[in-house]
Amino acid sequence: MKLGVLALQGGIVEHVHMLRRAAERLGVSAEVIEVRKPSHVEGLRALVIPGGESTAMYRLGKRTGVAEPLREAILEGLPTLGTCAGAALLAKEVEDRQSGRKYEPLLAVADFKVVRNYFGRQRESFEAELEVKGIGKFRGVFIRAPVIVPRSDSVAVLSEYKGEPVMVKQGNVIATAFHPELTSNTKIHEMLIEMAR
After folding, report:
1. Domain limits for position 92
2. Which of 1, 62, 81, 190 is least surrounded by CB atoms within 10 angstroms?
3. Exposed (0-12), middle (13-18) or buried (19+): which is 63, by Cβ within 10 Å?
């Protein structure tokens, strides 16, 4: 099974490691590749879009030409996990809570809105114990974290923090406001691989 991590910028290495561990735990034979150009999208069974600097990722996604084939693959059903900035790349609507500025989404494949920096800037980063539907307890690592607001009933909220949605699922797309790759818990990555089986 070919699994990919979008490797434009951000937490690439951590997600590669987590996908390998998750596949091992599930007894799935997997090759994990770093997706940098359009040809890398062919044959992918699942994809992770990591956290990082969403503006830089947006620019690189456009420049490398990888955005369009990815968009098509996700719309055709490629199981995809977007974490933090990765969630913003998947969203149909993106705005910044602090400045109120609206951003053009890169992929615009999921019917949710991502509000950047919702819980504050870098210095307001924190960890919290979450309850995730289908998984149970999960330690969420929040770094300049957004919230992910459903825009339609087709988006299911899988976890909330203080009443705000921080993990959602719509069809083949999962998005988290936190960084599951910065924990030792592979359950969210396992959920992605299960969707690809």
Report:
1. 2-196
2. 62
3. exposed
Contacts of 162 (CB under 8 A, 6+ apart): none
Tokens of 18: 């987590």
Q: What is the CATH number of the domain that holds 17?
A: 3.40.50.880
> What is the rounded average pLDDT for all residues in the chain?
95
For residues 41 and 39, give the distance between their C-alpha atoms in angstroms, rounded to a whole number: 5
State both tokens at 61.
């996604």
List, by residue number, the catalytic residues. Answer: 84, 179, 181
Domains contained in the chain, number: 1
Look up residue 108 and give its two tokens: 């615009």
End-to-end Cα distance, the chain: 9
User: Residue 92: beta bridge partners?
Assistant: none
Q: What are phi and psi of 166, to 5 degrees?
A: -120, -5
Q: Bridge-partner residues for 4, per DSSP?
A: 33, 47
For the cut 80, the answer to whether the pLDDT of residue 114 exceeds it is yes
Could you tell me where the DSSP H helices lie in the chain?
12-26, 54-64, 67-75, 85-90, 187-196
Among candidate residues 151, 164, 49, the one with its CA nearest the CA of residue 106: 49
Q: What is the pTM of this model?
A: 0.96
